Amino acid sequence: MTQTLLQPDEYIDPDDGLIHCRNCRKPRQRLAIIFGHELRLQIPCDCQLKELKEDQKKRDAAEWERFIHHLKNDGLGWKTLWDCRFDNMQDQNSELAYKLKHYIQFLKEPAPCGLLFWGPPGRGKTFAAACIVNDVIESGYPAVMVSFSQLLEELTAMSFHDRKERLDSIFSKSLVCLDDFDLRFLNKLHVPLAIEVMNRVDHCNKPVLITTCYTLKELKDPKNELEGKLFPMVLNRVAILIDGDDLGKQVRKDHVKQLQTTL
Ligand SMILES: [Zn+2]
Question: How far is the CA of 62 from the centre of ligand 1 (A)?
């Protein structure tokens, strides 16, 4: 008869002759007859099962974290934006905070409404938009936030094919955010691209966030042909309008400054 090697937390139960766990008293073996031979197969006791489940839970959590990290890498170019979160807002219970936190619900709507943050710089428009983008990404949906001017710059250097691929990739996300929409500093090369981007926004069936330094009055009163073409696209696409001045009371100044210096 071969000697059974026991771990320090095991014993042989005299009733069934099988190895049991000293902690939970459950068997770590079961008898099986295979081709006429009696075999003792290893099985996990309750504590080992618990440990296995905890390990699986940790692996799932790590995998989820990697997935979210990948979505953020893909959708939020600047690491500074990763830290823009609703829990950094001044008044968590204000009507405005409620409106922003619940914007995620539009992801599932067939005709989702857009949201526009308008008003002068330094009010926290980018911060608030990034809070929504982070919230959407952390819920597992792909979202993207791009600077309007940097996107035009990027598209200028691309071939027709690459440009199409880049725009397809942006507008295939569950949420698209165009940061700092501004037509005042465009050069001749940017103009057709700005029209192309805004046509995509106009036809996009996903929720769209736009931040802009224009006032509502300016957006409603275009001063040239390009503004006359693109401003209505912005206004038609957005149903929720957030005044930067209201936002300024909600967002901490240090967050705004940090974004202004790093973006
Ligand atoms: Zn056990």
Answer: 26
* 2 CA distance to ligand 1 middle (Å): 24
Q: How far apart are CA 134 and CA 181, in angstroms?
A: 20
Q: How far is the CA of 60 from the centre of ligand 1 (A)?
A: 24
Distance of CA 206 to the CA centre of its chain: 14
Burial (Cβ within 10 Å: 0-12, 13-18, ≥19) of residue 219: buried
**Residue that wins the pLDDT comparison between 251 and 97:** 97
Backbone torsions φ then ψ of 12, nearest 5 degrees: -100, 125
For residue 175, report the distance from its CA to the centre of ligand 1, in Å.
48
pTM above 0.85, yes or no: no
Strands 37-42 and 114-118: unpaired
The yes-or-no verdict on residue 30 having pLDDT over 70 is yes
Q: Where does the chain hold its CATH 3.40.50.300 domain(s)?
A: 76-262
Q: Does domain 76-262 have CATH number 3.30.230.10?
A: no
Provide the β-strand partners of residue 240. 115
